[in-house]
Amino acid sequence: MVSCAQVPYNVRSPRRIRNPGAIAAITMKTPKRIQPLVEEGLIDDVVRQLMSGKEATVYVVRCGDDIRCAKVYKEATQRSFHQAVAYQEGRRVKNSRQARAMEKGTRYGRKMAEEVWQNAEVDALYRLAAAGVRVPKPYLCFEGVLLMELVQDADGNVAPRLSDVELNRERALEFHAALLRQVVLMLCAGVIHGDLSEYNILVDEHGPVIIDLPQAIDAAGNSVAPAMLERDVTNLANFFGVFVPELLGSQYGKEIWNLYEAGLLTPDTPLTGRVVASDAPADVEAVIREIELARQEKEEQRRQQMELLA
Ligand SMILES: Nc1ncnc2c1ncn2[C@@H]1O[C@H](COP(=O)(O)OP(=O)(O)O)[C@@H](O)[C@H]1O
Ligand SMILES: [Mg+2]
């Protein structure tokens, strides 16, 4: 197998930040949403806007000698330093009063839920970085702005998305295997990405780096977990399947979930991409019930999010 470090990959549309140190000399006017972080001394300058999507605008920023990435969530409301500085590791809801308030939808509850949503990504990043998953190093989440490591390639350019990298069969096999390992590592840490695709994976000189985790879910005790994992893993198979057709029929998602459920999944468990067919007749109704349940649960989540943002 060829390692990423030996053979540089080609990027179809390189995204410039050659030599970030030099570029940092030219800065842009500070966007309003980043101003609080500048005032708190968390960011020195904004170098440039990197991307603007539906949910967030991403900037390249300078913090002292470091160039970092600031992701500004669009729906965030202004909050005070003391409220917002509660960027947390571990549990998303700190106590049962908060959980009850969120269930009841009180004003306090809505504020809490919004904070939980905004902090979900930084929580997941902390958890995954600690588990050894290749994610950008998180620094903090303040006033709806996530400050994290800027993923860069060997030349100091902003790392390209997987969708922008030229692939061949060999490289596709290598990246697919590396990403399945990351998915397994994440699941061993109890997390499922939930929106894994070639657009939420960057490629640095050592291989794929996973980003964009606000919708990440806890695997344990979550009825949609197997369906989410299956979708993430199928997205990978479909993307790399263009170069490696045999991946299209693989069953890595089911295999990984079966091992996880049986308590047999470790970061090093070998995978085959096949699951042994059971002799027992399939309980089709149960499968349909499960799919319907997952759909309803997702719908409910979306409805709650829309309510929060209304
Ligand atoms: N840490 C990072 N380093 C480099 N680029 C990043 C980083 N985080 C995000 N980006 C860039 O910004 C884009 C949008 O970020 P993402 O987290 O996927 O938010 P969105 O919800 O808008 O998709 C990514 O596709 C990627 O190109
Ligand atoms: Mg994204």
Structure, explained:
The chain has two domains: 162 residues, Transferase(Phosphotransferase) domain 1 (Transferase(Phosphotransferase), domain 1); 134 residues, Phosphorylase Kinase, domain 1, CATH 3.30.200. The protein starts with 19 loop residues before the first helix and ends with a helix. Helix 4 packs across helix 5, helix 6 runs antiparallel to helix 7 and helix 7 runs antiparallel to helix 8. The strands form three sheets. Strands 1-2-3-5-4 form a five-stranded antiparallel β-sheet. Strands 6-9 form a two-stranded antiparallel ribbon. A hairpin with a 3-residue loop joins strand 1 and strand 2. It has nine helices and nine strands. The chain is α+β, with helices and mostly antiparallel strands and 310 residues long. It binds adenosine-5'-diphosphate (ADP) and magnesium ion. Magnesium ion binds next to loops. It comes from Paralcaligenes ureilyticus. InterPro entries: Kinase-like_dom_sf, Prot_kin_PA4780, Prot_kinase_dom, RIO-type_Ser/Thr_kinase, RIO_dom, RIO_kinase, RIO_kinase_CS. It is an enzyme of class 2 (transferase). It catalyses: L-threonyl-[protein] + ATP = O-phospho-L-threonyl-[protein] + ADP + H(+); L-seryl-[protein] + ATP = O-phospho-L-seryl-[protein] + ADP + H(+). Its EC number is 2.7.11.1.
In the sheet with the most strands, the strands line up as 1-2-3-5-4
CATH level 3 topology of the largest domain: Transferase(Phosphotransferase), domain 1
Outline the biggest β-sheet.
5 strands, antiparallel
The CATH architecture category of the largest domain equals: Orthogonal Bundle
- Percent of sequence in beta strands: 5-15%
Overall, the morphology is globular
Bound molecules: adenosine-5'-diphosphate, magnesium ion
Residue stretches low in confidence (pLDDT < 50, at least 5 long) are 1-7, 76-92
Any idea how many domains? 2
CATH class assignment of the largest domain? Mainly Alpha
| Distance N to C terminus | 51 Å
Rounded to an integer in angstroms, the radius of gyration calculated over CA atoms is: 21 Å
Q: Which structural category do the helix and sheet elements fall into?
A: alpha+beta
Overall pLDDT level: 83
Count of individual beta strands: 9
CATH superfamily of the largest domain: Transferase(Phosphotransferase) domain 1
**What level of helicity do the residues show?**
25-40%
> Helical region count?
9
Question: N-to-C SSE series?
Answer: HHEEEHHHEEHEEEEHHH
